[in-house]
Design brief:
- The chain is mainly beta and 128 residues long.
- It has no helices and eleven strands.
- Strands 2, 4, 5, 6, 9, 10 and 11 form a seven-stranded mixed beta sheet that branches. It has a four-stranded antiparallel beta sheet with strand order 1-3-8-7, with no helix packed on it.
- A hairpin with a 6-residue loop joins strand 4 and strand 5.
Length: 128
């Protein structure tokens, strides 16, 4: 079992920045892929990015590439999503997710069904 708790959401003006945090507990954090997704009402959950357990590599959705950065602190069991140059279309509920047991020879998970555990979500609202 892995428990995930997000924090750091809020209201920000377009062009501003926010940093989300996701604290994990319950399993060896360093062996877990950590992803971020977002969802707006009436739409499917959208992949934002992932940071791998194996080498700390990252992968991002095209819509956020160059603006968002994922990092992890294995000593604190925490993953971060730094969001810069925010746009109104970034408004959503943001979720962190954990994928356990991936072999380092398999590609990083980018689909929601590949993840085993989810946080409760945190609202990010970007005003124009």
């Amino acid at each position: 079992q892995v428990q995930l708790v997000e924090s750091g959401g809020g209201l920000v003006q377009a062009g501003g920045s926010l940093r989300l945090s996701c604290a994990a507990s319950g399993r060896t954090f360093s062996s877990i892929d950590m992803g971020w997704f977002r969802q707006v009402p009436g739409k499917e959950r959208e992949f934002v990015g992932v940071i791998t357990w194996s080498d700390g590599g990252t992968l991002y959705a095209e819509s956020v590439k160059g603006r968002f950065t994922i990092s992890r602190d294995n000593a604190k069991n925490t993953v971060y999503l730094q969001m810069n140059s925010l746009k109104p279309e970034d408004t959503a509920v943001y979720y962190c997710a954990a994928k356990t047991g991936r072999s380092m020879w398999n590609p990083p998970p980018t689909l929601s069904y590949e993840y085993d555990y989810w946080g409760q979500g945190t609202q990010v609202t970007v005003s124009s």
